[in-house]
Amino acid sequence: MCGIVGFTGIQQAAPILLEGLSRLEYRGYDSAGIAVRDGESDVKTVKAKGRLKELAEKTDFGKAVKGTCGIGHTRWATHGEPSELNAHPHSSDDGAVTGVHNGIIENYKELKEKLIKKGYSFRSATDTEVAIKLVDYYYKKTGSDPVDAIHKTMLHVRGSYALCIMFKDRPGEIWTARKDSPMIIGLTENDTYVASDVPAILKYTRTVYYIDNLEFACLTPGKATFYNIDSEEIEKQPVTIEWDTEAAEKGGYEHFMLKEIHEQPKAVRDTLASLVKDGRIDLSQAGLSEDEIKNISQIYIVACGSAWHVGMCAQYVFEDLARIPVRVELASEFRYRNPILDKNGLVIIVSQSGETADSLAALRESKAQGIKTLGIVNVVGSSIAREADSVIYTLAGPEIAVATTKAYSAQLVVSYAIAVEFAKVRGEIDEEKYSALIADLDTIPEKIEKILSDKERIQWFANKFAGAKDIFFIGRGIDYAICLEGSLKMKEISYIHSEAYAAGELKHGTISLIEDGILVIGVLTQQELYEKTVSNLVEVKARGAYLMGLTSYGHYEIEDTVDFTIYVPKIDEHFAASLAVIPLQLMGYYVSVGRGLDVDKPRNLAKSVTVE
Ligand code: AGP
């Protein structure tokens, strides 16, 4: 979604804004703009449609725009087409207020009508212009009091927003406010930064403040003053960001996605190390007592996209090991269907960014119903991490590529650890099984390393199918959940139509789509379901499909059925997704590269989906 960067200090602002925005490119955007002022001078605004380099070229990489205070924005269109006119920043008619916004103002039509009646006119089709002019309206109405103007705007606006605003008569100041869209502030002695995400400012500072929902702040060089929604000044403690800029760089890899695929052994190892101590799983972060674990009647796993796929895998593991019924819910559906939740249930929200609007709303709905909530989150201090009753962090580090890989893998192992511990506490597995499962969990990183060391075969095969029009993934049980993720990886970055199907469902419709030469990838890691899926592969082969099999070492007879095979190391079958997903991530990656596409920033997609 949109990215925001602001700077006020003693350095030239524009190059810092452009640099920061480039670090937020992964969020997805279709136009960009900056507004900078030099002391008391008028604000200079420059915008460009398309990639950030258009804006950089227009401004001589920022050097042509003088001034030490400014705001910048990358826009992912919601209201109004991607165009220079709709790009941010937007200003009030007389230039008194200039601002950028991330989020959606739900009541913008109603506010716009009100402002038109007050004499305002509108140039763009955006909800943002309405928000900026609303601030201007209240600023003038309150006798140029920024605290009151922002407070009143926040009371009248419905929806989500992270706003950065400059007032013409307040040089050196940036005002920022947020609700349901992320925003962080970084300080050094003389400079102040504000951004949608940490990578944008990590080059300059690691001292970061999180603004909570319905709070706002005034930023001046080297200082931030925070206010709550009642306009009272509040104190905040800074957080030190532990990871370094290198973690947010490509480090010699051609793309972030490939780098992040290779970081999976470390992401999994670090995450497991935070949960497994002296051979036992320690879920103290989850804040659940043994009695509470024993009394859980139902687990609801709520998430979006790949995080939902983690839930789909986890469902099988929880139900089989811990014998707790699990429902896996798409957050966007869950939040609007008036869910009936068991009061002894546990809601687990899975999210890399911790800012996904639908997942956050689902969390709030669950809390409103009084159900215990647990977040599995990657971004420290994000909204879901702060609002859930407890949180288990995935230690994947910053994930930049839009297509998730290492966060997905880290989320998987957190869900395994919870399932194994719940199984033990509830008496579903004995001490021996418990230790064996933990020992197997420990082998995941090295097994992923082994798969990665043989990636050239997958690259070769991916190149062969880079021109495919349709690809199908089939599997049963956990293998079906793996297929869902493999298929998403393929379509989101290669733009090839692809579907994941529960292998037993093929005959109920999809098989009519199979024709000569179509690639069908069968995932077969579950012994009990192996023969069944082989039969389904034979059925599509008879209709002309080209088959790839993905199974564990030892199942060499698969080669009698399929045209190409990828083997992964053996592991307890509950954890098979952690290994089988790796070749599928590589397939998606290499097909995208083979097609010459923008792997890290696929069209129309955003890393963090902060609007619904
Ligand atoms: C996966 O590659 C996607 N980028 C997407 O499906 C993602 O998993 C989803 O938007 C959820 O994001 P979150 O984990 O940040 O909540």
Describe this structure in words.
By secondary structure, this protein is an alpha/beta fold. The protein contains 18 helices and 27 strands. The strands form five sheets. The chain has an eight-stranded antiparallel beta sheet, covered by helices on one side. Helix 7 (264-275) runs antiparallel to helix 14, helix 9 runs parallel beside helix 13 and helix 9 (305-322) packs antiparallel against helix 16 (478-494). The chain is globular and about 80 Å long. It starts with a strand and ends in an 18-residue tail after the last helix. It binds 2-deoxy-2-amino glucitol-6-phosphate (AGP).
Outline the fold blueprint.
Elements: E1 3-8, H1 13-23, E2 31-37, E3 44-49, H2 52-58, E4 69-75, E5 90-91, E6 97-105, H3 108-117, H4 127-141, H5 146-156, E7 159-167, E8 174-179, E9 184-187, E10 192-195, E11 207-210, E12 215-220, E13 223-227, E14 233-234, E15 239-240, H6 256-262, H7 264-275, E16 276-277, E17 280-281, H8 290-295, E18 299-303, H9 305-322, E19 326-330, H10 331-334, E20 346-351, H11 357-368, E21 372-377, H12 383-387, E22 390-393, H13 406-425, H14 431-452, H15 455-464, E23 470-475, H16 478-494, E24 497-502, E25 519-524, H17 527-541, E26 546-552, E27 564-568, H18 576-594
Parallel strand pairs: 18-19, 18-20, 20-21, 21-22, 23-24, 23-25, 25-26, 26-27
Antiparallel strand pairs: 1-4, 1-10, 2-3, 2-4, 5-6, 6-7, 7-8, 8-12, 9-10, 9-11, 11-15, 12-13, 13-14, 16-17
Bound molecules: 2-deoxy-2-amino glucitol-6-phosphate.
The site of 2-deoxy-2-amino glucitol-6-phosphate has 15 residues, from α9.
